[in-house]
Amino acid sequence: GGVRMRMEGGEDMQDAVGLSCTWGIPPATGTHAKWVRLNVGGTVFLTTRQTLCREQKSFLCRLCQGEELQSDRDETGAYLIDRDPTYFGPILNFLRHGKLVLDKDMAEEGVLEEAEFYNIGSLIRIIKDRLEEKDYTVTQVPPKHVYRVLQCQEEELTQMVSTMSDGWRFEQLVNIGSSYNYGNEDQTEFLCVVSKELYNPPNGLSSEPSHKAKV
Fold first, then answer.
1. Is the pTM of this model over 0.70?
2. pLDDT, tens only, 28-42
3. Which end of the chain is more exposed for a tag (fewer CB within 10 A), N or C?
């Protein structure tokens, strides 16, 4: 058994040397102190303590400082975290560069769930803002058109069009011929079609700024 242990030790040493060559990290002590392996739901992520501790209050920062959290580790020494690795990528990248970058198919709600689990406050705020914006644009429904047909006589037309209330738009005039005889005059009857756009404001709030609110 002793020989095997030494061999494994030798392999480990080679690995460590290999790492220090590729990334130019000081060997031995520096390697352990700087790099952290996380096994999130079976997927291993390699990152640095500095990255994980960008968000001081986060679970990840407390984890890699190893103070109060005694987390299980897998056979490679990676911290085991029972969460979905799909959403961990964007979270780790956010800690690396401070931007939220998502594939187009990735649900922001999923990332929000993980950001809340890891307690990354600044990311939670960013995603919530994005979701609110999205909600707002989705609920900006296209206006519905309401049509009204008004019947009137020729002489009433101009008056009616000029007194049309706000928001109503004149659409079409249909001449339906004369149906009344007043004395000798034929009064031509018209059907006047008017329309109005109705907006459905999101969440029952008016989409127009309210001028009534007095301070």
1. no
2. 444 446 889 999 999
3. C
Look at residues 31, 35, 16, 28 and name the one whose alpha carbon lies nearest to residue 78.
Answer: 35
Same domain, 114 and 152: no
In a domain, 22, yes or no: no
Based on the domain organization, do 128 and 51 belong to the same domain? yes
CB contact at 8 A, 81 and 37? no
* pLDDT over threshold 80, residue 108: yes
In terms of domains, do 177 and 191 share one? yes
- CA separation for the pair 176, 192 (Å, rounded): 10
The CATH number given to whatever domain includes residue 191 is 3.30.70.2000
